[in-house]
Amino acid sequence: MTDLIDYFNPVSIERPVFEHLAGQAGFPHNITVHTESTSISNPGKYKIALFGVPEGRNSPGTGTMKGPDNIRRELYKLARIPGKSKIIDLGNMKQGTTFNDTIAGLTDILTFLLNENVFPVIIGGSSALVTAIDRTLTHLKTKYTLLTVDSRIDFIGDRKEYDSFSYLNSILHNHKSTFDHFINVGYQTHLNDQQVINRFLRRKSELVRTGDVRKAIHLTEPLFRDSDVAVFDIASVRQSDAPGTVSPSPNGFYGEEICLLARYAGISDNLKIFGLFDVDPDLDIRNQTTGLAAQILWFFLEGFSQKQYETPVLSDPHSGRFIRYHVRVTDLDDDLIFVKSNLTDRWWMEIPSGSDINHYVACSHEDYLKANRNEVPERWVRGSERLKF
């Protein structure tokens, strides 16, 4: 590809009339920003790359093309991110002549960043752009788990041309795709076709309703920990908290809940790509939705700055970082093996694969307690079933 920076227009937003955080306390003061006066020579030296994709085609919400800059204005009003993660704001991707040209360009950008070990944070734009994520990971031959935080499962059985309500069609119907597993957090039964729900359940997908998330939101953290891609649709938030989207719902997550979910995504040491989509400033009220979107990104980045890379050393018995627990369950031939981190208190289950390499499934303390009650945890069953395919 040509120079990465050639794909982007530099950041150009007006300075806020009033700044609540002065000097070095503000968000822009510990990141590098691509502006007309500040060129970027080596994007690969950064840990995280933020960039907007102002694309509203293939979506009924064409105003989403205004989302990136409106979100950026609110993001730059927030506090600086703690820690020393090197972050760059690349600006907004130049729009392609056609929607497919944008998808091709976004695929090039994501491929470059992942090859350079730079974490991409996409500020949409419509969720139809998720197709580029699939193309990127397929090109890199990376088997991946996609987690969506969305009130709807964006799959429509009889629609041929995909859009922001049916981008999963393009993924599931692509026999070359390396898409492996689907997780949805926050779907609402009354907004979804039951046949679509059944279709994904037959694929062993993990679907969690909004009400179940609210009962025990901390149980979603292991889902993020086992995912490669996290896609947040602002329509997963209740309309009173986020009116600026083409498909709002009176029910959904509260602002505080969606920010906590974003933090869970940030601390995941398996995640490779994060995206926030479908903010439509044309439908917003006093920047309420763009302000919440900015805070979602802030909490993701704050979580990222606290990330502990534990998964790569789970199988190392000499690391001294973990405690291993063996639990006998009557219905199983072998003990269930749980691994707990001494540093973060996070839990995993070890799943034998029949080879020398064991697999680990993220779980919760509740799963360990369930095994001690002589019950097989559902996440162990799901993980074992997936290894068979």
Outline of the structure:
By secondary structure, the chain is an alpha/beta fold. The chain has 2 domains: 4-305, Arginase, Chain A, CATH 3.40.800; 311-388, no CATH class. The chain is built from 11 helices and 14 strands.
- Strand proportion, as a percent range, falls in 15-25%
Computed over alpha carbons, the radius of gyration is 21 Å
Domain unit count:
2
Number of helices: 11
Order of helices and strands: EEEHEHEHEHEHEHHEHEHEEEEHH
Find the count of extended strands (DSSP E, 2+ residues).
14
Could you report the average pLDDT, rounded to the nearest whole number? 93
Describe the fold and architecture.
The protein is an alpha/beta fold and 389 residues long. It folds into two domains: 4-305, Ureohydrolase domain (Arginase, Chain A, 3-Layer(aba) Sandwich), CATH 3.40.800.10; 311-388, no CATH class. 29% of the residues lie in helices and 19% in strands. It has eleven helices and 14 strands. The protein has helices spanning 67-75, 99-115, 130-139, 167-172, 194-202, 210-215, 221-225, 255-267, 288-305, 365-372, 378-388; strands at residues 8-9, 32-33, 48-53, 87-93, 119-124, 144-149, 179-187, 206-209, 229-233, 273-277, 322-327, 336-341, 347-351, 359-363. β3 (48-53), α1 and β4 (87-93) form a beta-alpha-beta unit. α8 packs parallel to α9 (288-305). The model has no long low-confidence stretch (mean pLDDT 93).
